[in-house]
Design goal:
The chain is an all-alpha fold and 197 residues long. It is 72% helix and 0% strand. The radius of gyration is 20 Å and the shape is elongated.
Length: 197
């Protein structure tokens, strides 16, 4: 940031405008097709202004991806399995998915970048899979699906469903976060599929 700029000054508004326009352009045209000149033109600013806040297009893109991942990590950390009060795994997973989908729908362009476009999105999804494997192996042993399917395959399938349905149903407004969370959790962890012992 430029020296001497105060929070809420014109400089901060310029930086925010650059970020907003960059998100729109990256999510629409992709990283490689978007130029710095496109971003500053959309923001009605100059290239020297861009360089007051960002070293390069890559650093701006990385900042946006970091913002997306930080928001998602906050959701992950706010939903530990040990906070379940009634041992209803289906309900816990449903609520967790709903919060993720709400974050995606509140940040659709950022989601297109952070969940689909960046190299880091693969690592994010791998981490998501590992978190799900942990939940499946520690909390879902009584479900029929976990008896029939390898936990890694189940977790990969769940993340694949989230990835595909976010793109086709959530970001196109065919489903809202609550509906999509309910449908996905019922497919995998419906009470009717719980084994009776």
């Amino acid at each position: 940031m430029a020296r001497g700029r105060k929070v809420n000054s014109n400089g901060e508004r310029s930086k925010q405008l650059l970020l907003e326009k960059a998100v729109e352009l990256f999510s629409t045209y992709g990283y490689h097709q978007t130029k710095i000149s496109d971003i500053v033109k959309a923001a009605d600013l100059t290239q020297p202004t861009f360089y007051l806040y960002f070293q390069s297009k890559e650093s701006l893109f990385n900042d946006l991806n970091e913002k997306f991942q930080n928001g998602l990590n906050q959701i992950f950390s706010n939903n530990p399995v040990h906070m379940m009060t009634n041992n209803d795994v289906n309900q816990m997973i449903q609520e967790h998915l709903k919060q993720i989908f709400e974050y995606f729908i509140e940040n659709p362009n950022l989601t297109k970048i952070g969940f689909y476009e960046t190299e880091q999105s693969l690592a994010l999804k791998d981490r998501f899979v590992m978190n799900l494997v942990n939940v499946i192996e520690t909390e879902c042993q009584d479900y029929d699906v976990t008896q029939r399917v390898d936990s890694h395959v189940l977790a990969e399938s769940l993340v694949g469903s989230i990835e595909r349905l976010t793109r086709t149903n959530l970001l196109t407004y065919k489903s809202n976060p609550q509906q999509l969370a309910e449908e996905i959790s019922h497919i995998y962890f419906s009470d009717s599929r719980k084994l009776v012992r």
